[in-house]
Write a structure and sequence with these properties.
The protein has helices spanning 3-36, 44-51, 57-72, 76-80, 84-88, 96-106, 115-121, 127-138, 146-152, 226-239, 245-249, 251-254, 261-275, and strands at residues 156-159, 164-167, 175-176, 181-187, 190-195, 200-205, 212-213, 218-224. The chain is α+β, with helices and mostly antiparallel strands and 277 residues long.
């Protein structure tokens, strides 16, 4: 074999290898996309795997979305309780995003198999988990989360994670989203972000930009956003009492989201239901 033939043979042998590498990469991209795309349909085995995933919040949330869809279309396996154990175990998942999604999904099960898990989740450290659990329980006319539903109507405090100098550009009436940095607190060791735990509106700033704050000091109050109010108002329509009338009635004046047409309409429906009790 001469040198030309050897070089040509080596080049030909590399082409299939490169092709396999490209195809493999494309397949990996496809499967990653499929797992992270909440619209991809999961079969029974895939759904169980998704719900039991510990290292990917997106995968588990995909599973809970699929389960909610199954409940809505009266899927036999979902109604039979094939996924109830895996769903209930998510109350102890280390990621709050997953626990929020799990509580929401539990409330869509017509059988209410995970009501005890939802009652446990009323004591979760995360505000969003507690609210979702309270709303879910209300679907079964269970008022165990009534105090959480009341709290969800009013602004929540954002506190300083450490002592130091507070820096912020946030303004009253500004919309803020989950996970957004409201600002930061600077210390001699660095800077600690001040993050918002729920979507909402800045109702009040307690500390000005540049203020020196103590650890735990209230920096701002965040009023709930429209989707949160709608879900809570629907839940209160089912399990609320006349004691919540004044609190709900005040939403039109105290909450920017309360003035939105859809929220205002649900406010009236909830008030009408409570006043009849």
């Amino acid at each position: 074999m001469n040198a030309t033939e050897a070089a040509g043979g080596g080049q030909r042998s590399r082409v299939p290898v490169l092709l396999l590498a490209v195809v493999g990469t494309l397949l990996l991209m496809f499967f990653a996309f499929r797992v992270n795309w909440f619209g991809a349909t999961l079969d029974d085995a895939e759904l169980v795997v998704a719900l039991r995933t510990q290292d990917s919040a997106q995968a588990v949330q995909h599973g809970t979305e699929q389960l909610v869809s199954r409940f809505a279309r009266r899927d036999a396996a979902a109604l039979r309780g094939d996924f109830a154990e895996a769903l209930g175990a998510l109350k102890q998942h280390p990621q709050w995003e997953v626990r929020r999604a799990a509580a929401w999904a539990m409330g869509h099960d017509p059988s209410g198999r995970n009501r005890s898990a939802l009652q446990d989740m009323l004591r979760d450290e995360d505000r969003g988990v507690r609210i979702n659990a309270a709303v879910a329980l209300a679907n079964y006319n269970d008022a165990a989360g009534l105090s959480e539903l009341r709290d969800a109507l009013v602004p929540f405090a954002v506190s300083a994670p450490v002592a130091g100098k507070f820096s912020t550009r946030a303004k009253v009436q500004e919309a803020v989203s989950l996970g957004r940095d409201l600002g930061s607190v600077t210390t001699a060791d660095g800077s600690a972000p001040v993050r918002v735990a729920m979507n909402g509106w800045v109702q009040r700033m307690h500390q000005a930009d540049g203020a020196t704050v103590a650890a735990g000091a209230v920096l701002a109050e965040i009023a709930p956003d429209a989707p949160t109010l709608l879900n809570v108002l629907l839940a209160l329509q089912l399990v609320g009492t006349r004691a919540e009338v004044a609190l709900i009635d005040a939403l039109r004046e105290t909450s920017p989201a309360g003035k939105q047409p859809e929220v205002a309409a649900q406010t009236e429906r909830t008030l009408e239901a409570l006043r009849r009790r």
